[in-house]
Amino acid sequence: MSGAQGQATTDVDAVIVRSGPNGLVAAVTLAEAGWRVLVLEAADQYGGGTRTEELTLPGFRHDVCSTAHPLALASPAFRALGLEREGLRLAHPEVPLGHPLALGQSLLLHQDVAATAAQLGRDGAAWTRTVGALGRRWASVADGVLEPLAVPPRSPLTTGAFGAAGLWPSTWFTRTVFREEPARALFGGLAAHATLDLAAPLTTAVGLLLGGLAHGVGWPVAVGGSQSIADALVRRLESLGGEVRTGHRVSSLADVPASRAVLFDVTPRQLLQIAGERFTPRYRRRLAEWRYGAGVFKVDWALDAPVPWVDERLAGAGTVHLGASMAELVAAERAVAEGRVSDRPYVLVAQATGADPSRAPEGKHTLWAYCHVPNACDVDMTDAIEGQIERFAPGFRDRVLARHVMGPAALEAHNANEVGGDIAGGVSDWRQMVARPRLSLAPWATTDHGIFLCSSSTPPGGGVHGMCGRSAAQLVLKRLG
User: Which end of the chain has fewer CB atoms surrounding its CB within 10 Å, N or C?
Assistant: First the structure.
């Protein structure tokens, strides 16, 4: 029977709706098992959160969403795929992360644990014992965290130790583990990737994971832009006989060819709109009750020269976190959690051209930065973001050739999965991590035997790791053969 239309014959074995990294990994996983796979994408370009476009000026290639890819290197899905055979190349910046504390004073998170710890004074040993230890065991950590429902569990001892520490709010963790402000601020910037109040449970897990991966595998960028990741996946899919059709919007199941299974790389809101009539009332309610998280406000710049950081060492950092102290970070993220914007937001800056000069004309640079805002917020944060950069790099605005601004509405218009500007597929608090999108050992399945969910609204959640797609596809193979 067809998962889409109940027909006795099928045009293909599986249809994947939308082509983010999870959808493409699901497609490749099924194609490698011998299934005939078709991917349908509403946009004119596949890739979802890994698209790269000339947003500002010709010759300046900007990642529309993700740039640094520690999860892609660490992910069991990408490790198994070996996309370097499809031409994917990753480039490492001089250091993964920089965090200015005051004008001219910064911390650098090196891949080398000892070099990082040496900057932290009395907290160097504590950093080595916690974040550094995870870096040494990065493969076990990644396997356990990115396959949380695996049976038997992956690396149970390492995963259990990680979970015991990661459950705590990062405000408690930094206050308990570190004695001085520099280490607290460095860890707080990592934890703030959770897009939650830093006093919320699980924020420590995000800081530990991202910090550990910085030491374990680095925070590389894809040469040519993040689109290169999607291009490599599509090349692999096509080599296996699969197909990607762009410009094909799926508004209902009538838009999907007959198949054995349909896998949706969409969030619960879109799934309910497209296929809600096929589900039980209880599952429909669960989809309708899904909560979306804070949004982001993003600015891309074409620059005439590198960012003029007062601390020149920051030029070598692929990512820079702006928020000088833990208290400042806590205040900024708490404002967003309470539905307000911050006058001094936590800002994530990605400067990829240091590691990958191919993204801009010779001697020029691309840059992007975003801050968190309440979901669907319509406040223009351009001045606030540029103000934070100018705070540590006076004269930055003088180097701007062009800028491109995307608030939550623009982000959602570009990628319908980014509802209200939420780039993670739904708030990642403890309730929605336990039940994502429902409490089940097989949350990728719906109540229709032929329809599955493979987006970041399923475990393990957001990030370019492809594990939501791989897990969904493996479940399809287990249930449908």
Answer: C
**Which residues are within 8 A (CB) of 478 and not within 5 positions of it... i.e. 6 or more apart?**
none
Per-residue b/e over 241-253, b at no fewer than 16 CB within 10 Å? ebebeeeeebeeb
Instruction: Give me the CATH code for the 90-218+294-414 domain, please.
Output: 3.90.660
CATH 3.50.50.60 domain locations along the chain = 14-50+225-289+426-480
User: Where do you find CATH 3.90.660 in the chain?
Assistant: 90-218+294-414
**What pLDDT, on a 0 to 100 scale, did the predictor assign at position 156?**
86
Superfamily assignment of 14-50+225-289+426-480 in CATH?
Answer: FAD/NAD(P)-binding domain (3.50.50.60)
Write the pLDDT tens digit of every residue in 268-322: 999 999 999 999 999 999 999 999 999 999 999 999 999 999 999 999 999 999 9
Predicted confidence at residue 1, as pLDDT, reads: 32
